[in-house]
Amino acid sequence: MINLDHLVIFITAVEQGSFSGASRALKRSVSNVSTSISNLESDLNVTLFDRSKKYPTLTPGGERLFSHAQTLLRQAARLDHIAQDVNNSVEEQFNIGVGEEVPMSLIEERIAKTIRQFPNTKFRLVRDSRDQLQSRFESGELDVLIRVEAGLETDADFYTFEIFDMVPVCSPDSALADGEIVANELMIASRQLICESLFDNDMLRAEVTLATDVMLVSAMSDLIKMVEQDIGWAYISLIEAEDRAAAGTLKIITPEYSLINRGAALDFCIMPANQLGPVAQFIKSQFTEKCYS
């Protein structure tokens, strides 16, 4: 059986360039370093260092084993961390549902912090239709749910953590892009693309639907590309609209009369529980530290 402590000493000696350097780095005597490496060589039946010169150098066999020794130590450290997670009841897998209409830029930092905090948990991020996300959340397939205006449709605990503005946009090639102010009648007569997740939201459907010719698109990313191709105009988040307007692929429409008089609320939903796991507690803290409810 290979002694992990001997592997640490071996790797440190290589990285420090000498046995004495390893002794200083590890705060051990040179004789202890030398003996440990000799014992490792005996266990492996391989000469790791050529000691014929002033400073020991790796033999071909030592060079070959060095990278494997590093990998083995990393795996040992990971095993130790996983064992700690098991003892602390850290979730092995954690599934996050995100509505199609939710701008990733408004949630990515919070999610990234959670993933970095629990490197041994397997995370899954799911985009889907509003109804499908709700069904998967209620069945327990999703641990948390992030979407627009969720409050009236769930018995789960929900927290409004962000309110973002939505604006109408069109292609720079659209007839709607010709004027500074666009008549509402012209927008009503032009095809409107609507993200299905917004259309399926009873609280927002009437506000986001203006045109008589409506085309539903399931993925927000596809909707934006179709608007850029002048298939129609659409409501998207201001943060996404500004980025594309700056790039010249979309134009933000200024309607004659304001159409949406309030921002869209982003809700974080989690099922009530007497005791949440560490991952659930952490991600909840990320989304509820500053919230509107």
Automatic annotation (TrEMBL):
Domain HTH lysR-type: 2-59
Top-level taxon of origin: Bacteria
InterPro entries documented for this protein: LysR_HTH_N, LysR_subst-bd, WH-like_DNA-bd_sf, WH_DNA-bd_sf
Keyword tRNA processing: no
GO molecular function terms listed in the Swiss-Prot or TrEMBL record: DNA-binding transcription factor activity; transcription cis-regulatory region binding
Keyword tags: DNA-binding, Transcription, Transcription regulation
Family designation: Belongs to the LysR transcriptional regulatory family.
Name of the protein this chain belongs to: LysR family transcriptional regulator
